[in-house]
Amino acid sequence: MKIRNLILCGAMVLVMTSCATKQGAINQLEDFSYELRDNSRNYDTDDWEQAGKKFVKIREKISKHEFDYTAAEKAKIGRLEADCVKYMAKGAKDGVFDKLKNIGSEIKGVIQGIMDALDPKTLETEDL
Question: How far apart are CA 85 and CA 77, in angstroms?
């Protein structure tokens, strides 16, 4: 009788732990989507790299339980993943445009410097 109770208790602990871990992965994804929503506008390259790694880790946790999720849980996971991808794509796009804009400004400065150096008025005054 004691062994049977012990096995039953052990099984209950495993079931409860599995549910907590399964739900924990969803909670992490939800928290991550809120983090991206609230903070991603200020992310730099390093922040995006960390965010990408974090997303992959959360996805790995979710995939360990993919057969344990109900249809409603899978739908929630899909919505949260879509939110995360949306924020990451927008951040990547904005980051690329910002870099191009900065590079464009640098190129304009270089061209202006070259033009100033080749300006005949500047060359005449330098020869004096």
Answer: 12
The pLDDT tens digits of the residues spanning 105-128 come to 655 565 566 566 555 564 455 444
Q: Are 77 and 62 in contact (CB under 8 A)?
A: yes
pLDDT at 33 over 50: yes
Average pLDDT for 78-85: 91
Count CB atoms within 10 A of the CB of residue 29. Answer: 22
H or E element in which residue 16 lies: helix 2-39
Taking only Cα atoms into account, the Rg of the chain, rounded to an integer number of angstroms, comes to 28
Q: What is the dihedral of CA 67, 73, 78, 83, to 10 degrees?
A: -140
3-state helix, strand, coil in the chain (%, to 5): 90, 0, 10
Q: Which residue has the tokens 């209950």?
A: 12
Contacts of 128 (CB under 8 A, 6+ apart): none
d(Cα 84, Cα 14) in Å, to the nearest integer?
A: 31
